[in-house]
Amino acid sequence: MRLPSQAGRLDGSGRGSYHPQSPVSAETQAVFFNAVPLLAVASAYLAVTVIVAPRLWRERAGLKGSELAVPLMFPCIGLPAAIIAGAVLNDRRPIGGHVWVLFAASVIALLPALVFLFRRGDGVDAPPGEKTSLAFAVHHRPGALLDCLKRFAEHEINLTRLESRPVPANPFEYVFFVDLLGGPGDDAVKAALVELRAAARHLKIIGSYPVGERPVSVRSPGR
After folding, report:
1. For residue 15, what pLDDT is reported?
2. Same domain? 116 vs 144
3. How confident is the model at residue 21, as a pLDDT?
4. In what order do the strands lie in the sheet with 130-137?
């Protein structure tokens, strides 16, 4: 005759400690659905940081605050994501106790970095182009300066600097210094300079150089 305890073990009633189809534990969910996606976010954003950092360093002298703030978002997202992922791995618990909320947030946060990495061949990470510096003086008539500057707008040329300096030998006469994105070999720049030469009283091309650098010396036309 079989004892009840033995029968229980033989008919499978004692199998509760292990079952191959039992649900995934909360600790495992926290690792795979929180820590791993966060590590993916950290890796993607830090990879973008490595790509854009050399360009930022080259162009640091000419960057405005807004132009610097956007690239800084990549390490400022990647590093906190890595820190939170480490905390989840250490505690084996989801942040706030909700696995899927953090998983969804990680997937959404990952999208911008993936777009950058897979579309960087479209010119986002292209080598720095040229800047051209020039100086010109305008005729003494209303709207003369606007008439000169609109040549750049019509050819969609971006101006990164516009300064005016008085000419010591001629009171009330000013020379305007411009930095523009583009080199003398660009069709748009060539066309704009031809029109500017006709509209301005004096025009001097100071030189072209890689973005982020400045010409060694700047002199007014005719000085």
Report:
1. 45
2. no
3. 52
4. 159-167, 170-181, 130-137, 202-210
pTM score of the predicted model: 0.47
* Contacts of 203 by beta carbon, 8 Å cutoff, 6+ apart: 134, 135, 136, 193, 196, 197, 221
Low-confidence ranges of the chain (pLDDT < 70): 1-22, 61-62, 120-128, 212-223
Q: Domain total for the chain?
A: 2
CA–CA dist 57, 14 (Å, integer): 66
- What is the rounded CA–CA span in Å between residue 107 and residue 221? 57
State the pLDDT at residue 135. 94
Which residue matches tokens 């292209």?
A: 126
CATH number of domain containing 154: 3.30.70.260
Residues 176 and 204 in one domain: yes
Place of tokens 């583009």: 182
CA dist., res. 59 & res. 179, Å (int): 14
Q: Which domain holds residue 64?
A: 26-122
Task: Report pLDDT for 98.
Answer: 84
Chosen domain end from 97, 122, 147? 122
CA dist., res. 159 & res. 142, Å (int) = 22
Q: What is the pLDDT of residue 219?
A: 44
If we measure between CA atoms, which residue out of 156, 122, 158, 146 comes closest to residue 196?
146
